[in-house]
Specification:
The protein is built from 1 helix and 5 strands. With about 55 residues, it is mainly beta. Strands 1, 2, 3, 4 and 5 form a 5-stranded antiparallel sheet that branches. A hairpin with a 5-residue loop joins strand 2 (about 20) and strand 3.
Length: about 55
C-alpha cells in the first residue's frame, strides 16, 4: 500500500487522461515501485500494478 500511496503523492510520470465509453475519466500515475490507475470522475482506485525493482 505504501508504494501505491507514493505513486499518487510523488508521481514520477503520468499517462494520458482517457475517457471510457461511460464517460469516466481515468489517468495512470507512475511511481518508483508501482503504477496506479485512478478514476478522476469518481476519485476511486481502479488498478495498482507493482513495478520491478528499479522502476
Amino acid at each position: 500500500m505504501q508504494d501505491v500511496k507514493d505513486a499518487l503523492e510523488n508521481p514520477i510520470g503520468f499517462g494520458d487522461k482517457i475517457v471510457m465509453s461511460d464517460g469516466d475519466e481515468r489517468q495512470k500515475y507512475f511511481g518508483k515501485r508501482a503504477s496506479v490507475v485512478i478514476s478522476i470522475t469518481d476519485k476511486k482506485l481502479i488498478q495498482a500494478t507493482p513495478q520491478k525493482d528499479g522502476g
